[in-house]
């Protein structure tokens, strides 16, 4: 991370407020997700198989990914500051409902619908954060701002996961203990909403005047203050908005390639993460509690890779470009899985998890910045919401595909070799395609 830029970014009062909102919410995300993982995957009475893991990921990722287009339309018409205030409050209420279901021992459709709703609401929050960032930092500081805020947000989620694990040790691994962890998470979500109230209401856009310059009369219609009739109208014009956003991306080949690269990576990463979950649950450990501890270690090591990516990505992309760095990262994923993954040993797999953490965050930082540099503000919310949809849908699709052949202990050499070959081919294909298409940045 470029030391000369970071102090200037941190001196921005509004950036600090937006950043604090992100940290509070993502810390809570970690607590919430560990509580769910312990309840669904690592409860002593539940045996985890590839099919069950895939079903859980599909239920929690695929359906709410469909909210992406709707989130984009609203983010481009509602005040983004208000989204950052109210979505954590709504999530707190929903988490309390899920806590009640867990305490009652419900783990059927009602439970997954509750989880689905909590995570679905988060789509609005995360897309609003990405769309808001260019309003609180200078354009030439976006790479560093993304590296710092997105990566530290991810790391704080890992810390939240550690906090959730400690709460599990205090409250217990049963239904009542998990319910108490979720109650604590609800209080933390409320804190994120309170922090967001410190941001000025109109600061984060969308700005009708700016949209009129960049997108014409139609863009002004999208950006006006939403009242009830406007909201109903927006629901009826989601498809039109998506078509406009798609055309906007189509005129920017580097943005389209960036979305393709992150979707490709997420599919392969999803297969590896499902393998990791199964290995920790049924191969590296003899009991569920040890399996959860091992999985937490894997996530922590991966988190260290995320932090490393934040440090090295900004200076690297200034030397070799974002497109070249993405290609190198995809190649590094192939090499690391070949050298460290094939033994299916705990320590070498952990080392591979670190490299994949670097790859995942490095690619994401480059994609985030590419979209922020090339997408006009009138379309930014819709594009980031679709990006978020692809990000999760590809992971869930990978889980569903892998469930058809992965063994319950996660050891599948041919699958890993196929992932390695795909990463290597993807690196070459992306670099070749990016070199043939000139970048288009906003001025």
What is the structure about, briefly put?
The protein has 443 residues and is mainly alpha-helical. It has helices at residues 6-10, 13-40, 50-65, 68-75, 80-103, 109-132, 142-171, 175-196, 208-223, 228-236, 238-250, 253-282, 288-320, 322-341, 346-374, 377-402, 413-436.
What would you note in describing this structure?
The protein is an all-alpha fold and 443 residues long. It has a single domain (6-436), classed as MFS general substrate transporter like domains (Growth Hormone, Chain: A, Up-down Bundle), CATH 1.20.1250. The chain is 81% helix and 0% strand. Mean pLDDT is 83; it is low at 209-229.
Share of helix, binned: over 70%
What percentage of the residues does DSSP assign to strands (E)? under 5%
Q: Which architecture per CATH?
A: Up-down Bundle
**Termini gap:** 24 Å
How do the helices and strands follow one another from N- to C-terminus? HHHHHHHHHHHHHHHHH
Instruction: Determine the number of helices (DSSP H or I, runs of at least 4 residues).
Output: 17
The domain tally reads 1
Looking at CATH, the homologous superfamily is MFS general substrate transporter like domains
Query: What do we call the CATH topology?
Result: Growth Hormone, Chain: A
Structural category: mainly alpha
Gyration radius from CA atoms, angstroms: 21 Å
Question: Kindly state the mean pLDDT as a whole number?
Answer: 83
pLDDT below 50 for ≥5 consecutive residues: which ranges?
Answer: 209-229
Q: Shape, please?
A: globular
Q: State the total count of DSSP E strands.
A: 0
Report the CATH C-level class. Answer: Mainly Alpha
Major beta sheet summary: none
């Amino acid at each position: 991370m470029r030391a000369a830029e970071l102090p200037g970014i941190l001196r921005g009062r509004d950036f600090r407020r937006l950043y604090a909102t992100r940290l509070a919410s993502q810390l809570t995300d970690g607590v919430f997700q560990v509580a769910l993982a312990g309840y669904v995957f690592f409860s002593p009475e539940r045996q985890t198989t590839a099919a069950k893991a895939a079903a859980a990921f599909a239920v929690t990722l695929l359906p709410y990914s469909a909210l992406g287009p709707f989130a984009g339309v609203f983010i481009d018409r509602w005040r983004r500051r208000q989204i950052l205030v109210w979505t954590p409050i709504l999530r707190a209420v929903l988490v309390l409902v899920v806590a009640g279901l867990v305490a009652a021992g419900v783990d059927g459709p009602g439970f997954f619908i509750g989880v689905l709703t909590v995570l679905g609401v988060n789509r609005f929050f995360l897309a609003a954060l990405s769309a808001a960032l260019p309003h609180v930092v200078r354009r030439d500081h976006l790479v560093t701002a993304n590296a710092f805020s997105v990566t530290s947000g991810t790391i704080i989620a890992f810390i939240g996961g550690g906090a959730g694990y400690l709460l599990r040790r205090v409250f217990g691994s049963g239904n009542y203990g998990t319910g108490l962890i979720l109650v604590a998470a609800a209080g933390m979500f409320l804190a994120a909403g309170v922090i967001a109230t410190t941001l000025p209401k109109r600061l984060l856009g969308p700005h009708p005047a700016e949209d009129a310059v960049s997108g014409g009369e139609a863009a002004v219609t999208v950006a006006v203050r939403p009242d009830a009739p406007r909201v109903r109208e927006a629901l009826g014009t989601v498809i039109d908005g998506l078509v406009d956003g798609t055309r906007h991306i189509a005129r920017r080949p580097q943005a389209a390639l960036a979305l393709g690269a992150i979707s490709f990576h997420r599919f392969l990463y999803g297969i590896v993460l499902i393998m990791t979950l199964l290995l920790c649950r049924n191969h590296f450990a003899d009991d569920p509690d040890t399996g959860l501890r091992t999985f937490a270690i894997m996530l922590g090591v991966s988190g260290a890779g995320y932090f490393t990516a934040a440090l090295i990505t900004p200076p690297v992309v200034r030397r070799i470009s974002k497109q070249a760095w993405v290609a190198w990262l995809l190649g590094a994923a192939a090499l690391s899985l070949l050298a460290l993954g094939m033994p299916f040993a705990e320590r070498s797999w952990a080392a591979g998890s670190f490299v994949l953490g670097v790859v995942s965050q490095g690619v994401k930082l480059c994609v985030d910045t590419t979209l922020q540099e090339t997408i006009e503000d009138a379309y930014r919310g819709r594009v980031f919401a679709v990006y978020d949809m692809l990000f999760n849908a590809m992971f869930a699709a990978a889980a569903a595909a892998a469930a058809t052949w992965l063994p319950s202990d996660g050891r599948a050499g041919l699958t890993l070799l196929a992932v390695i070959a795909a990463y290597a081919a993807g690196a070459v294909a992306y670099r070749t395609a990016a070199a043939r298409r000139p970048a288009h940045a906003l001025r």
